[in-house]
Specification:
224 residues; Rossmann fold; Arc Repressor Mutant, subunit A; five-stranded parallel beta sheet; 50% helix; globular
Length: 224
Amino acid sequence: MPQTNAELDGSDELIRVALVDDHEIVRIGLANMIERQPDMRVTVDVGSGEEALAQIPGQADVVVLDIRLGDTNGLSVLKTLKDRDPAVKVIMLTSFGGDDLVLDALIGGASGYLLKESRGRSVIDAIRTVASGGSLFGPQIAEKLLARLRQPSSADPLAILSPQEQKILALIAQGKTNKEIGQDIFLSEKTVKHYVSNILSKLGYTRRSEAAAFFAQHRFEGPH
């Protein structure tokens, strides 16, 4: 079959998808569905967290990640992936919709979850949804997530952010621009912009000033 122009020139119009699952048959099924789509291609197909962290950063727009892997858990892979590539969107694969790990994944920056028995059309739609900036999780998970976020806790209120995000938030609170932040911590301005977007999304704010005020309010309220 002849390649399309997008395939030949590496056009950004194609959604680059990475698959991470320690069950090869699951990856084969997902890859077959994805490769049949005119706007998608599989760029990474691995069975372990170690391989995922070595191959995915910079090579995928959407990652379909098993929440339970043989060599590690998907949450630690999610955290590291988001730290290394804040722009990447992650969909967690799980066997049980009520899994508490799903809540932790969503709090940690995942764009949603899919049940492993999901129909092919649901998987394809989910990839397109998160690639365009959307999110997906069912009403049951949404209710649990809201309840978790509303629970009073003695834990550090900034713990919802990764260490790198907390560092960037501290610099935002100092009034620094994205360019200045990038110079301080040796990141490109574009990468800092993605981090700031993730920080605002996690905290539920739309303005940097709100995030800065949140930091100023909670910086000394961590666990003692």
